[in-house]
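sorry for the late reply, my laptop died twice this morning and i had to redo everyting from scratch. anyway the thing you sent over, i finally got around to it. pasting the sequence first so we're on the same page, its 85 residues, then the predicted structure underneath. double check i copied it right bc i was rushing
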Amino acid sequence: MELRECKKCLLLQSGEEENYKLVQEYIQKIKSADKCPDELYQERLEKCKDCDNLISGVCLKCGCYVEFRAAYRNKKCPDVKRKAW
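ok and here's the structure:
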């Protein structure tokens, strides 16, 4: 049986508990002035889950964990064609 990476999954859903915890710790350290509101953060993650460039919580366009990138107020979707958020 061939193992496949979870496409369109965020870290926790793809079984990456260790990395999920680390990312959440980093997010907690972001200054509130640099952090986007929770509602916007959730909207961004929902859009990422619909993107073909997401594999196991990692954006194939920029190589970052989408949960971390989406937490920053000034960050944008790295897909120049799609620009989901």
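The chain has one domain: 1-78.
thats about all i looked at so far, will dig more tmrw
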